Amino acid sequence: MFAGESQTRPTHRVGPKVVDYYLLHHVISGHGVFETEGRVHALGPGHTFLIRPKRLFSYASDADDPWRYRWVAFAGDRAESLLAEAGLGTERLIVDTGPARAPGERCREIYDAFRARSPSASLEAAGRLHLLLASLMSADAERAEQPPMADTHGEELVRQVIGYLSTQYAEPVSIEAMAETLGYNRAYLSRLFKRHAGVTPIAFLTRIRIDRGKRLLRERPELTVEQVASSVGFPDALYFSKQFRRAFGATPTSYRTDTLRS
C-alpha cells in the first residue's frame, strides 16, 4: 500500500495506462475528467473514483480549475470484497460524498502514517483504509437519503459534456463521437445540453476554443496567430480570426497588440 496527494497544474494528464493495483482518488478541490472503459466522467470536490487493476484509464485536470486530490493504492486478496462492501466495484467506480470531510481526512491519515515511517506504519495504514472505505459507505448512504434534486440527470450530462470539451477542445472534436463516448444519442445529448446550458455543444466548444486562444495570444507572444489557432482546435486561422472578432470585437492581431502595449 502507498498513498499521496497532489495539487495538479492546469490540464495535467495521467495515462492512458494500466496499473496492477487498486487506486482510489478523492477530489478535495477543483475539477477534472476521469476516463475508463469507454466512459468519461467530469468530477469535482467530494468525488471519489476507483481505478481497477489492468483496466485502461486516464484522467486530466481542468484547464481553469485544476483539481487537488488525495490517493491511496492497495492490493491483496481481500481488496475486491472490501471495495464491494463499500459499494465500489466493476459496475460502480465513482462515489459522490458531497460535503462529507471524512473520506478526505482518512486519505490524509493514511498518507501521514507512511510519512511517519514508524514500524507500525503498514498496519496503521491498513486500518485507516478500512475506515476510509467505511466513510465512503456512510457518506454515500447519507446522500441517498436526501431528497433528489430536480432533473439531476440533465445536470450530470452537462457536467460530462463540459468536462469532455474542456479537455478535448484542441482536438478535431466530433459531437457524434463525443455522444457515443458518453453513451448518449447525439440528438438527445444536444437537446438536453442546450436546455440546461443555454447553448448548443458546438457553440460551447467554439467559446472554449476562443477563450483559450485569447489566453495564448496574451501569454505566448512568440506564437503566430496561425499557431494559436491550430493549438486551440482551429485548423483555419481565418475562421479563428472571424470567430474571435465576433466574440471580442477585435481581430487576434489587434487584441494582442493592445494587450502588449498595456
Describe the protein in words:
This protein has 262 residues and is an alpha+beta fold. The chain is elongated. The protein contains 10 helices and 9 strands. The chain has helices spanning 79-85, 102-116, 121-145, 152-168, 175-182, 186-197, 201-219, 225-231, 237-248, 252-261, and strands at residues 2-7, 13-17, 22-29, 32-36, 39-43, 47-51, 57-61, 68-74, 94-96. It has 2 domains: 2-145, Regulatory protein AraC (Jelly Rolls), CATH 2.60.120; 152-261, Homeodomain-like (Arc Repressor Mutant, subunit A), CATH 1.10.10.60. The longest helix has 25 residues, at 121-145. Strand 4 and strand 5 (39-43) form a beta hairpin. It starts with a strand and ends with a helix.
Count of domain modules: 2
Topology order in helix (H) and strand (E) letters: EEEEEEEEHEHHHHHHHHH
Distance between the termini: 53 Å
Largest sheet, strands/sense/barrel = 5 strands, antiparallel
- CATH topology heading of the largest domain: Jelly Rolls
Note the total helix count. 10
Level-1 CATH class name of the largest domain: Mainly Beta
Summarize the amount of helix as a percent range: 40-55%
Instruction: Please state the average pLDDT score.
Output: 85
Number of E-type strands: 9
Order of neighbouring strands in the sheet with most strands: 1-8-3-6-9
Oligomer: single chain
- What radius of gyration results from the CA coordinates? 21 Å
3D shape: elongated
Keywords: DNA-binding, Transcription, Transcription regulation
Domain HTH araC/xylS-type: 159-258
InterPro entries: AraC-bd (IPR003313), Homeodomain-like_sf (IPR009057), HTH-like (IPR037923), HTH_AraC (IPR018060), HTH_AraC-typ_CS (IPR018062), Tscrpt_reg_AraC-type_HTH (IPR020449)
Protein name: AraC family transcriptional regulator
